[in-house]
Write a structure and sequence with these properties.
A three-stranded antiparallel β-sheet has the order 1-3-2. The model has no long low-confidence stretch (mean pLDDT 86). It has helices spanning 15-34, 38-50, 57-64, 68-80, 102-123, 128-147; strands at 55-56, 84-88, 96-100. It is built from six helices and three strands. It has a single domain (15-147), classed as Winged helix-like DNA-binding domain superfamily/Winged helix DNA-binding domain (Arc Repressor Mutant, subunit A, Orthogonal Bundle).
């Protein structure tokens, strides 16, 4: 019989622990697979998929869950790559709007394809029902986390 440690025998399922370990692995490996940092990917995705034209720095910060200074640094890095452009508000020069350049859209398409290629590779070992169940579990976890904000 196993000795209990903190009320656990060691054979219980630990969804949160496994999700956390997976997140850590994804944060370190996925950027190498797709060729871009997760923060750059988040901004590219927001501008390419969720906002068809442009987004304000404060809106980006809110939607990505990071502060405006971090968004400004990220935008500056991506401006250096010619992936995004920044436009000042004509009525309030303190406000900036960010949009993808054609080069940024092309980069996003390539990165998006690398992500899909990785998912296809995973699909070779996973049943579509398993993938659908995983998506439902992750959505339920996000909902539970939102309730505890």
């Amino acid at each position: 019989m196993k000795e209990e440690f903190l009320g656990h025998k060691g054979d219980e399922l630990h969804l949160l622990r496994d999700l956390y370990r997976t997140q850590q692995a994804m944060l370190s490996v996925i950027p190498r697979i797709i060729g871009i940092s997760s923060s750059r990917l988040a901004l590219l995705r927001l501008l390419a998929v969720e906002n068809s034209k442009e987004a304000g720095v404060m809106e980006i910060a809110r939607r990505l869950g990071i502060n405006a200074a971090a968004v400004t640094r990220l935008v500056r890095e991506m401006e250096d790559l010619s992936w995004v452009k920044r436009r000042s508000d004509s009525q309030d020069g303190r406000r900036n709007y960010v949009s993808l350049t054609p080069k940024g859209r092309q980069a996003f398409r390539k990165i998006h394809e690398r992500m899909h290629a990785f998912e296809r590779m995973m699909g070779e070992t996973l049943d579509s029902k398993d993938v659908q169940a995983t998506i439902r579990v992750l959505a339920a976890l996000r909902d539970a986390l939102e309730k505890h904000r």
